[in-house]
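Supplementary material to the annual report.
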Amino acid sequence: MSSLSYAAPTTVDEAVKLLAGASGLAKVLSGGTDLLVQLRAGRLKPDLIVDTKKIPGIIGIRKGSDGGFVIGAATPGAEVEANAELNAAWPGIVEALDLIGSTQVQGRCSLAGNLCNASPAADSVPALFAAGAIAVVVGGKGKREVPVEQIPTGPGRTSLGKDEFILEFKLPPRGARSGDAYLRFIPRTEMDIAVVGCGINVTLDEKGVCTAARVALGAVSPTVIMVPEAAQVLVGHTLDADTLAKLDAAAQAAAKPITDKRGTVEYRKKVAGVLARRVAAIAFDRAQGKTNGKAH
Amino acid sequence: MNYVASDLKVVGTRPVRPDGVDKVTGRAVFAADTRAAGMLWGKIKRSPHAHARILSIDTSKAAALPGVKAVVTAADFPDIPSEEAFVGEGPMNFRDLALNVMARSKALYEGHAIAAVAATTQEIADRALELIDVQYEVLPFVIDVEAAMAPDAPILHDDLFTAGVNPKAEKPSNIAKVVTFKKGDVEAGFKDAEVVVEGRYTTQPVHQAYIEPHACLASYQPDGQVSIHASSQGHFMVRAYTAKLLGMDMANIRVNPAEIGGGFGGKTLIYLEPVAVALSKKAGRPVKIQMTREEVFRGSGPTSGATVEVKIGAKKDGTIVAAQQVLKYQAGAFPGSPIGPGCMCGFAMYDLPNVDVVGYDVVSNRPKVAAYRAPGAPITSFAVESAIDDLARKLGMDPLTLREKNAAKNGTKTHYGPVHQNIGFTAVLDAVKAHPHWKTPVKDGQGRGLAVGFWFNIGGESTATVHVNEDGSVTVATGSPDIGGSRASMGMMVAEVLGIDVARVKATVADTASIGFTHLTGGSRVTFATGMAATQAAEKVVDDLKKRAAATWEIPVEAVEWKDGKAYPAGSNAGAFEPLDLAALALKAARTGGPIVAEVSVNAQGAGAGFGAHICDVSVDKETGHVTIERYTAVQDVGRAIHPSYVEGQIQGGAAQGIGWALNEEYIYNAKGQMENPGFLDYRVPVASDVPMIEAVLVEVPNPRHPFGVRGVGEVPIVPPMAAIGNAIKSATGVRMPDLPMSPPKVRAALDAAG
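Predicted assembly:
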């Protein structure tokens, strides 16, 4: 019979050492809302689980020296949603994380877990990509800062080394007239996996013309992808009918989905276009201070 | 006797449910909660192939693994002959069931049981399964019903010849049976018709999706006695099947009914019990087997998927003059789809002169279907009620008016033979017409659909015992597992007859050694048939109590009346005695004749058929194809609601399951014939936020064949939803969705195709 070791180190160094020294498969545990399910289903048989939640600072939200937010990697969804300042600055990230699982799961699920599980359909990831979030990665070689879009490399795969894990995320300081949003499409209304997800983050000028944009799509490629072509469509324009049509086309062109049990190629491409238009509308409204409430 | 509605004090009220606290606090004991000293864990090895010949099974490595106490294969079970089963719900053959429980020479679907082990821990049992070496010859397979009917289709059973054809079939076929029903002259009817609608509809197999996976604990004693704790819809059914499959006497098997976590028809047959008994016999220790959700999907029965062609002809005034159907139902790996009820129920709501229905029962390489709420009826009704909606559009007629014009009434002869009696369909349609939902204009951007449905409901064999305890409290024991509130309704009916507070009555489900035979809980029969037995037993107790009071007072029994839980002298001539209540009589029982007990066994006849009509409003996101159920009203003739909250719950539950069937539920197979979505993440039953508040409207046309007027209520509500939703989508978008599920990709594609 195989055995499974569990460790809950209280320092980064200790955690890194445990990961580096593991003889077989070692997995990092944050909330465990993916990992435990995979263990139970027999899809993963790790020899070592390193629980990071006892490391100081890995749970919690604070303001960085640059005025941006720093979110601990294992901060549960419920805590993120309860943070009013973060809600005001980055509603897209908050609503994306909020979509994961049930109320019970929200007590555990984390941004780092969602990112490192590396599912192309992860809900919080397109929002993090669109925000331009930075992952602070720790490991044997010390600390490094990595744009989140460089973390997932394929379904279930990341660019992190065996002894590395994410300590926290940095969100850039929020400028004026900026807004983000995330929508996903699921066949039901809850408790489902995105058939397509879309996160958009924009900054506008005083006339409502877009000056900066980031567009990310989920579930249409082996990883969540950035769609710079869609962002270019937005920059220099208000959200008029022509821009929306071009955005739809750009999103559809960038989507390279597969047909599987959750959707067909044809359907996913169409929905990618639909969502891009709807998400852009919400992000533009938010950037202009229109209180249209939550996207969901 | 029949009770008059205005006299009822308990029936029709809403006492707190007797099993509620245990269930919400997690204390209720389900089959998976049972434990026994020295218990082993049983696990089942299942076929990864959709169709394969089993060349060899080598269990030696598994048996040698420390901690493994028994391994069984089909060789450990008697090879029983073909014999029509006398238990269960729907057609079943003992040999087929035996082969379904443990494959003998061929694996007929992915998930088919091949071997089983019992070990000291679940982990060892899992490891042992991996060590069982099965050599297969993989065979071509067929999943789809029409593909299975093709002349060149892979044949599942060399000894299966189509029944019901003339001349007799000479070659084996996947078509197990052809059934036909004819009334009048359908060709002449269509010649007479001024408007004709036609359609071809497909439905997907859907699982009953009970929250509790199958589980049992079996113990084989050295003296040949077996005890089984199992969750099922009928512990007598479990006993009979287990005895038959193992070649045992029923008297040697005692089955204890555990609390059941949902059945919906899916627990009217067995999968695990004979395997657990065989393992226990070999190991000499109790064995527990508990399916995972994945095993439930891969190894247990959904209901049929089907193809249904329908054609209906009418006069311009809406009078239907001809109706025709061809139904092809998937049976799964063994014969026995609900094709019979499928052929009967589609047109049963209407008074039709000319009808022609042909049905095919077809095997293919998927799990054997099991009963699911009104088996067969929702499928056929999806087609017929969609066609009726099309007919109303073509005639320019209101869909309710069209149904009223053709509605079956008392005296209507059905196309399958019987004449409708004591039905309340007209009252249901009247209630629709009067309901605010029907009278409120459809909101902008939404669509409204109407569909009706029928189910026979059954009676049958039931036993109930009523015991008056020494303190005057009352115990009612029946043989009916409680899947829909029967303990509440039994207690209420008995309390009503005895004239006492329902809180003084406790209803229980007795095991197979403690109560007379009772047919399983299915066919919406329990409140009707077991309720009849319980009512009659309570009436016998009242008669007995009156005799005892008469003896105490030394007056004739005719001079005693029973009222509000007390014996009274019938009038001033009878004498001036203080009334004797139940507690007083119970206390004196030893001096007035001994224990106060009555047992009644019935074979209840006269079950009242059920009719329902559902109104549904939807909105459709035309860009994503997502359908939202905005408002839903379910009207049903329930005879008399013993406990209205339970009846409403049955109707809401049936409608909710219908919403899942309509919108998202389906089995997704890969190119190897393996199921791709064996879990609730991708097999999408509705979640709470998918379902609006379903308003249940109870129409009460009492069934005169039951003392309180009861008709079955649990099955009708799953019949209309698919067509009601499809008709609403048609009304919202102009597009007819003939293929279930009406999932977002399909709706979007249909909208795109329609331009």
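The first strand of chain B starts at residue 40 and ends at 46.
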